[in-house]
Write a structure and sequence with these properties.
There is one protein chain. The chain has about 160 residues and is mainly alpha-helical. Helices cover about 70% and strands about 0% of the residues. The chain contains seven helices and no strands.
């Protein structure tokens, strides 16, 4: 089980963080995911990669958490800090506000498209992995990502 944790903990954490944007919650639910996986290992049928199975467990735990706390996906969150360097502070501030605007606009997208976009952009998952996690095809994930991207670009053009 230690090997399973070492190989998949980062994937599960990044997946959860891409959905909830809360470091502490993502860490807690990552631990809960592996506990739940140990308790239900006999249900793993090998039809998908272990990481996909773990992400499915993680997603259900996150939804249960939100339901228990009567909370929707947060509309705002603070993105990770910009990398340190010799860049101009004004550029960093502008970039941060542009990112926040994009993330706010993403909240207006339909849930499935928003989820695909978060998984692809912040979770850095392949379309195939996204399709497996969402119980859909790789092509479905690609199409939804494209639709979300086009919607965001159209919204930007109007401003």
């Amino acid at each position: 089980m230690d090997e399973l944790y070492k190989e998949n903990a980062k994937i599960v954490y990044h997946f959860l963080f891409s959905l909830c944007h809360d470091e502490q919650l993502a860490q807690d639910l990552t631990q809960d995911t592996f506990l739940k996986a140990i308790q239900s290992i006999e249900r793993y049928d090998g039809s998908c990669k272990v990481s996909v199975w773990l992400c499915q467990i993680a997603k259900h735990l996150l939804y249960q958490h939100w339901q228990k706390h009567k909370r929707e996906i947060p509309s705002e969150f603070s993105p990770e800090e910009q990398p340190a360097g010799n860049t101009d502070i004004e550029q960093q501030i502008t970039t941060k506000y542009e990112l926040l605007d994009v993330l706010k606009d993403m909240q207006k997208l339909p849930q499935q498209i928003r989820e695909v976009m978060y998984l692809r952009v912040t979770g850095m998952l392949s379309f195939k992995e996204i399709g497996e996690i969402m119980g859909r095809s790789e092509n479905w994930a690609r199409v939804n990502f494209y639709r979300g991207k086009e919607t965001l670009l159209k919204g930007r053009d109007k401003q």
